[in-house]
């Protein structure tokens, strides 16, 4: 047991050290240096793709979702085709959590200083996202996760929480260029350690009984937000 604890501590210390080597957040912003093309590879002018993306009818797909890519494809949303594609994929499972297991809730403080207690979360559907600013797959999920959170923003029985190891000031700067519509918990290394999380992004959906209904690791070809939305729908209709 002692060896396991030491291994987790050492592994997480590596993650924390990497997180502390923080690059300027501006390097993660979508800017005029970002290369955006059509599905056929034709380049967009910056003003053109920004205008189309702002309509919310399009989404940006990274050329290489596992690296800090500055190249994206602008794709017209097709919910039917997307559902067919994602339904045929299987989530990459984490070794940190197991579906059906109970998830221990802890008190947290968000980036705005608001305290979120374990007691107020009990009995609700909760979406957890463990992420880091420097993690490219984490950042690439944000825009689509925001759409899921926005769809349930008026439902007090569904809560969205994003826990990062990055410090508060750094997260605040990042959120100015890339809003994350979850309850963002900064300086959350203790939560990563408590749950044994050593990689990110990790996404979970917790049911009303406090059990893990969905879990995944990584970008998963952009399917995670779809799976989260589908899991929430199932939990809401379950008797």
TrEMBL record:
It comes from the Bacteria. InterPro entries: AhpC/TSA, Thioredoxin-like_sf, Thioredoxin_domain, Thioredoxin_ResA/DsbE_sf. It comes from Mucilaginibacter pedocola. GO terms for molecular function: antioxidant activity; oxidoreductase activity. Residues 1-19 form the signal peptide. Keywords: Signal. CDD domains: TlpA_like_family. This is Thioredoxin domain-containing protein. Pfam families: AhpC-TSA. Residues 97-237 form the Thioredoxin domain.
